[in-house]
Amino acid sequence: MTKRAARAFFVFSTLISALVFLALTVDSHRKIPALTNAAAIDATVIAGKDVWHRQNCINCHTLLGEGAYYAPDLTQITAQRGAAYLREFLKDPSRFYSEERDGRLMPTLPLTDQDITAVIAFLGWVSKIDTQGWPPRPILVKGAAVPGMLVGAPAPTAASSDPIELGRTTFNATPPACAACHSVVPDVNIVGPSLAGIAATAAARVRSADYHGQAKDAAGYIRESILTPNAFVLTGPTYSAGGRSLMPSDYAQTLKPEQVDQIVAYLLTLK
Fold first, then answer.
1. What is the per-residue pLDDT across 184-194, written as a single tens digit (0 to 9) for each?
2. pLDDT tens digit sequence for 147-166
3. How high is the pLDDT of residue 148?
């Protein structure tokens, strides 16, 4: 190769590389509004961000893989817990966590109802950001997970056809993050009650005089509990407040009918 040819090759390759780099940069910036869920940023979300900074939440918690790694990662907390739970938790964290059991206890912050609404809106916006798979695995700290809690499992693949296995995978996936609140280990209660033996429990509950829902059998009761959790409210300090369940009530909109069928099929195996 002559010097002239080498020079031409160098110049041509540099120009091509620069153009590719510029094109990728422009494409990345073009996608930022959609990836960051920018259209959902409103005055309430901004107010929630201000509450987050004012209370120095990042000193303990983590968002989008960045933070103190001392307390749980809150990137997907609204999907994992729901707004009703978060509202009650922020009012009095000691109802939900024990310093003796979890090794730490979140302080009760001086938050108004408006502050709580705003910070939940902010965390809801964060949960909708497309992180493109980052962080690659859940960031767990002591007190963030207990036996029977498997959060962050991959979504079911089309290759699987067993409804029970599909239900097991969906149960542990985020969303719907069933395993973030419910253990399948006996006597291990996270936020909601343990679902160990739920098939037998559901069958007995349907026959109970205290039950006033529409279900006729165990499968119907489990389905009703997922789609309309207030049909039968299980009392408990972390289960309900003001006579209403703290379980998210939007699964009828966020889950496909076949996903509900698969979760029911899986839970019916827990006898």
1. 999 888 888 99
2. 444 544 444 454 568 999 99
3. 46
Overall pTM surpassing 0.70 (yes/no): yes
In the chain, the domains with their CATH numbers are: 38-127 (1.10.760.10), 163-267 (1.10.760.10)
Q: Give the separation between CA 208 and CA 202, rounded to whole angstroms.
A: 10
Tell me which residue has tokens 């422009």: 26
Query: How sure is the predictor about 141, in pLDDT bands with cuts at 50, 70 and 90?
Result: low
Structure-token match 């003001």, residue found: 242
DSSP assignment string, the chain: --HHHHHHHHHHHHHHHHHHHHHHHHHHHHHHHHHTTGGG--HHHHHHHHHHHHTTGGGT-EETTEE-SSS-B-TTHHHHT-HHHHHHHHH-GGGT--HHHHS---------HHHHHHHHHHHHHHHTS--TT-SSS----TTS--TT----BPPPPTT---HHHHHHHHHHBTTT-GGGT--SSTT--SSSPP-TTHHHHHHHHHHSTT--SS--SHHHHHHHHHH-GGGSPPPSTTTEETTEE-S-S-HHHHS-HHHHHHHHHHHTT--
